Amino acid sequence: MNEQEFINQLKQQGIELTALQIEQFKKYYELLVEWNQKMNLTAITDQEGVYLKHFYDSLTIAFNFKFNNQKIIDVGAGAGFPSIPLKIVYPDLKVTIVDSLTKRITFLNHLFKELKLTDCQAISARAEEYAKDHRQEADIVMARAVARLNILDELCLPLVKVNGYFLALKGLKAKEELKEASNGIKILGGRVDEVIDFTLTNDDHRSNIIIKKVKATPGKYPRMFSKIKKQPL
Protein backbone atom coordinates (compact mmCIF):
# COMPACT_ATOMS: atom_id res chain seq x y z
CA MET A 1 0.00 0.00 0.00
CA ASN A 2 1.66 3.24 -1.11
CA GLU A 3 0.83 6.64 0.36
CA GLN A 4 -1.88 7.45 -2.20
CA GLU A 5 -3.54 4.07 -1.77
CA PHE A 6 -3.48 4.64 1.99
CA ILE A 7 -5.20 8.02 1.54
CA ASN A 8 -7.77 6.56 -0.87
CA GLN A 9 -8.60 3.51 1.25
CA LEU A 10 -9.17 5.69 4.33
CA LYS A 11 -11.38 8.03 2.31
CA GLN A 12 -13.55 5.07 1.32
CA GLN A 13 -14.03 4.43 5.04
CA GLY A 14 -15.06 8.04 5.69
CA ILE A 15 -11.65 9.22 6.95
CA GLU A 16 -10.37 12.11 4.85
CA LEU A 17 -6.81 13.07 5.74
CA THR A 18 -5.70 16.69 5.79
CA ALA A 19 -2.41 17.84 4.26
CA LEU A 20 -0.97 18.07 7.80
CA GLN A 21 -1.99 14.51 8.64
CA ILE A 22 -0.52 13.17 5.39
CA GLU A 23 2.74 14.94 6.25
CA GLN A 24 2.67 13.55 9.81
CA PHE A 25 2.36 9.98 8.53
CA LYS A 26 5.23 10.61 6.10
CA LYS A 27 7.40 11.97 8.91
CA TYR A 28 6.38 9.06 11.15
CA TYR A 29 7.57 6.59 8.52
CA GLU A 30 10.89 8.41 8.07
CA LEU A 31 11.56 8.52 11.83
CA LEU A 32 10.59 4.86 12.25
CA VAL A 33 13.10 3.77 9.59
CA GLU A 34 15.81 6.11 10.93
CA TRP A 35 15.48 4.97 14.55
CA ASN A 36 15.08 1.32 13.55
CA GLN A 37 18.73 1.38 12.48
CA LYS A 38 19.66 2.13 16.11
CA MET A 39 17.11 -0.06 17.91
CA ASN A 40 14.73 -2.87 17.04
CA LEU A 41 11.34 -1.17 16.59
CA THR A 42 9.90 -3.17 13.69
CA ALA A 43 10.79 -5.92 11.24
CA ILE A 44 8.77 -4.08 8.58
CA THR A 45 10.67 -1.12 7.10
CA ASP A 46 9.56 -0.83 3.45
CA GLN A 47 7.15 2.03 2.88
CA GLU A 48 4.31 -0.06 1.45
CA GLY A 49 4.58 -2.53 4.34
CA VAL A 50 4.59 0.17 7.01
CA TYR A 51 1.63 2.02 5.49
CA LEU A 52 -0.40 -1.20 5.24
CA LYS A 53 0.65 -3.35 8.21
CA HIS A 54 1.26 -0.58 10.73
CA PHE A 55 -0.58 2.63 9.79
CA TYR A 56 -3.65 1.26 8.01
CA ASP A 57 -3.96 -1.79 10.27
CA SER A 58 -3.90 0.47 13.35
CA LEU A 59 -6.72 2.58 11.93
CA THR A 60 -9.06 -0.31 11.02
CA ILE A 61 -10.50 -0.23 14.55
CA ALA A 62 -11.89 3.26 13.75
CA PHE A 63 -14.04 1.80 10.96
CA ASN A 64 -16.30 0.20 13.61
CA PHE A 65 -15.64 2.25 16.74
CA LYS A 66 -16.10 5.97 17.31
CA PHE A 67 -13.12 7.98 18.52
CA ASN A 68 -13.36 11.60 19.68
CA ASN A 69 -11.69 13.04 22.77
CA GLN A 70 -11.33 9.91 24.91
CA LYS A 71 -8.47 9.13 27.26
CA ILE A 72 -6.58 6.14 25.81
CA ILE A 73 -3.96 3.88 27.36
CA ASP A 74 -2.02 1.84 24.81
CA VAL A 75 -0.35 -1.17 26.44
CA GLY A 76 2.89 -2.42 24.90
CA ALA A 77 2.64 -0.10 21.89
CA GLY A 78 6.24 -0.59 20.82
CA ALA A 79 6.77 1.96 18.05
CA GLY A 80 3.36 3.56 18.73
CA PHE A 81 0.83 1.18 17.21
CA PRO A 82 -2.14 1.51 17.21
CA SER A 83 -2.46 4.69 19.29
CA ILE A 84 -0.26 7.13 17.34
CA PRO A 85 -1.90 6.62 13.92
CA LEU A 86 -5.23 7.11 15.74
CA LYS A 87 -3.90 10.24 17.47
CA ILE A 88 -2.84 11.70 14.10
CA VAL A 89 -6.32 11.13 12.66
CA TYR A 90 -8.16 12.12 15.87
CA PRO A 91 -5.98 14.86 17.42
CA ASP A 92 -8.32 15.39 20.41
CA LEU A 93 -7.46 11.96 21.83
CA LYS A 94 -5.44 11.95 25.06
CA VAL A 95 -2.87 9.18 24.71
CA THR A 96 -0.75 7.40 27.30
CA ILE A 97 1.57 4.65 26.06
CA VAL A 98 2.81 2.15 28.65
CA ASP A 99 5.76 0.04 27.53
CA SER A 100 8.39 -1.79 29.58
CA LEU A 101 11.33 -0.97 27.27
CA THR A 102 12.87 2.43 28.04
CA LYS A 103 14.54 2.74 24.62
CA ARG A 104 11.10 2.62 22.96
CA ILE A 105 9.93 5.38 25.29
CA THR A 106 12.84 7.53 24.12
CA PHE A 107 11.76 7.03 20.51
CA LEU A 108 8.11 7.78 21.29
CA ASN A 109 8.90 11.01 23.13
CA HIS A 110 11.01 12.13 20.15
CA LEU A 111 8.14 11.16 17.84
CA PHE A 112 5.62 13.25 19.81
CA LYS A 113 7.91 16.25 19.54
CA GLU A 114 8.67 15.87 15.82
CA LEU A 115 5.03 15.30 14.87
CA LYS A 116 3.92 18.13 17.20
CA LEU A 117 1.47 15.86 19.02
CA THR A 118 -0.02 17.24 22.24
CA ASP A 119 -1.72 15.35 25.10
CA CYS A 120 0.62 12.40 24.61
CA GLN A 121 2.88 10.71 27.13
CA ALA A 122 5.01 7.57 27.05
CA ILE A 123 5.74 5.80 30.33
CA SER A 124 8.30 3.09 30.97
CA ALA A 125 6.46 0.56 33.14
CA ARG A 126 4.93 -2.88 33.16
CA ALA A 127 1.16 -2.72 32.72
CA GLU A 128 0.41 -4.64 35.93
CA GLU A 129 2.59 -2.22 37.92
CA TYR A 130 1.10 0.84 36.23
CA ALA A 131 -2.39 -0.40 37.12
CA LYS A 132 -1.68 -0.07 40.86
CA ASP A 133 -2.01 3.73 40.68
CA HIS A 134 -4.18 4.06 37.56
CA ARG A 135 -7.07 1.64 38.07
CA GLN A 136 -10.20 2.27 36.00
CA GLU A 137 -8.79 5.54 34.72
CA ALA A 138 -9.06 5.23 30.93
CA ASP A 139 -12.02 5.48 28.58
CA ILE A 140 -10.23 3.06 26.24
CA VAL A 141 -7.35 0.64 26.72
CA MET A 142 -5.82 -0.82 23.58
CA ALA A 143 -3.28 -3.49 22.72
CA ARG A 144 -1.94 -4.79 19.43
CA ALA A 145 0.44 -7.74 18.95
CA VAL A 146 1.45 -7.88 22.63
CA ALA A 147 0.34 -11.21 24.14
CA ARG A 148 -2.44 -13.79 24.01
CA LEU A 149 -5.84 -12.45 24.99
CA ASN A 150 -6.10 -14.51 28.19
CA ILE A 151 -3.01 -12.63 29.43
CA LEU A 152 -3.88 -9.25 27.91
CA ASP A 153 -7.32 -9.14 29.51
CA GLU A 154 -5.83 -9.04 33.02
CA LEU A 155 -3.24 -6.42 32.03
CA CYS A 156 -5.76 -4.15 30.32
CA LEU A 157 -9.26 -4.43 31.79
CA PRO A 158 -8.27 -3.19 35.29
CA LEU A 159 -7.22 0.12 33.65
CA VAL A 160 -10.61 0.66 31.94
CA LYS A 161 -13.40 2.76 33.47
CA VAL A 162 -16.78 1.09 33.93
CA ASN A 163 -18.64 1.67 30.63
CA GLY A 164 -15.30 2.15 28.87
CA TYR A 165 -13.73 -0.24 26.37
CA PHE A 166 -10.83 -2.63 25.93
CA LEU A 167 -9.93 -2.88 22.24
CA ALA A 168 -7.75 -5.83 21.23
CA LEU A 169 -6.32 -5.90 17.71
CA LYS A 170 -5.55 -9.55 17.00
CA GLY A 171 -4.38 -11.82 14.21
CA LEU A 172 -5.20 -15.23 12.79
CA LYS A 173 -5.79 -17.03 16.13
CA ALA A 174 -8.29 -14.48 17.47
CA LYS A 175 -11.23 -16.90 17.76
CA GLU A 176 -9.11 -19.45 19.61
CA GLU A 177 -7.75 -16.75 21.93
CA LEU A 178 -11.22 -15.34 22.58
CA LYS A 179 -12.52 -18.77 23.57
CA GLU A 180 -9.74 -19.35 26.09
CA ALA A 181 -10.09 -15.79 27.48
CA SER A 182 -13.90 -15.75 27.79
CA ASN A 183 -13.98 -16.69 31.49
CA GLY A 184 -11.28 -14.19 32.44
CA ILE A 185 -12.99 -11.36 30.57
CA LYS A 186 -16.16 -11.95 32.64
CA ILE A 187 -14.26 -12.16 35.94
CA LEU A 188 -12.48 -8.88 35.16
CA GLY A 189 -15.75 -7.06 34.41
CA GLY A 190 -15.76 -7.22 30.63
CA ARG A 191 -18.29 -8.23 28.00
CA VAL A 192 -17.44 -8.97 24.37
CA ASP A 193 -19.56 -6.58 22.28
CA GLU A 194 -18.26 -7.20 18.76
CA VAL A 195 -15.61 -9.07 16.79
CA ILE A 196 -14.75 -7.65 13.37
CA ASP A 197 -12.93 -10.09 11.07
CA PHE A 198 -11.15 -8.89 7.94
CA THR A 199 -8.07 -9.41 5.79
CA LEU A 200 -5.32 -6.90 5.09
CA THR A 201 -4.11 -9.07 2.21
CA ASN A 202 -5.27 -12.45 0.94
CA ASP A 203 -3.42 -14.39 3.64
CA ASP A 204 -3.15 -11.75 6.36
CA HIS A 205 -6.16 -12.25 8.63
CA ARG A 206 -7.11 -9.80 11.39
CA SER A 207 -9.77 -9.52 14.08
CA ASN A 208 -10.60 -6.39 16.04
CA ILE A 209 -12.25 -7.31 19.34
CA ILE A 210 -14.39 -4.73 21.14
CA ILE A 211 -14.89 -5.50 24.84
CA LYS A 212 -17.05 -3.26 27.04
CA LYS A 213 -16.28 -2.84 30.74
CA VAL A 214 -19.67 -3.49 32.35
CA LYS A 215 -18.64 -3.77 36.01
CA ALA A 216 -15.67 -2.92 38.23
CA THR A 217 -12.66 -5.24 38.20
CA PRO A 218 -12.14 -7.01 41.56
CA GLY A 219 -9.33 -5.36 43.53
CA LYS A 220 -7.05 -8.43 43.53
CA TYR A 221 -6.47 -8.04 39.77
CA PRO A 222 -4.09 -7.62 38.04
CA ARG A 223 -1.82 -10.14 39.72
CA MET A 224 1.96 -10.30 39.28
CA PHE A 225 2.86 -11.02 35.66
CA SER A 226 4.52 -14.35 36.51
CA LYS A 227 1.21 -15.55 37.99
CA ILE A 228 -0.87 -14.16 35.09
CA LYS A 229 1.34 -16.03 32.63
CA LYS A 230 1.44 -19.24 34.63
CA GLN A 231 -2.27 -19.33 35.52
CA PRO A 232 -4.43 -17.24 33.15
CA LEU A 233 -7.98 -16.73 34.45
UniProtKB/TrEMBL annotation:
Originating species: Candidatus Erysipelatoclostridium merdavium
From the Swiss-Prot or TrEMBL record, give the protein name.
Ribosomal RNA small subunit methyltransferase G
Q: List, alphabetically, the GO terms of the cellular component aspect.
A: cytosol
Keyword NAD among record annotations: no
The entry's localization annotation reads: Cytoplasm
User: Is the keyword Cytoplasm in the record?
Assistant: yes
Q: Report the Gene3D superfamilies cross-referenced here.
A: Vaccinia Virus protein VP39 (3.40.50.150)
Question: Which residues does the annotation say bind S-adenosyl-L-methionine?
Answer: G76, F81, A127, E128, R144
Which gene does this sequence derive from?
A: rsmG
- Residue ranges annotated as coiled coil are none
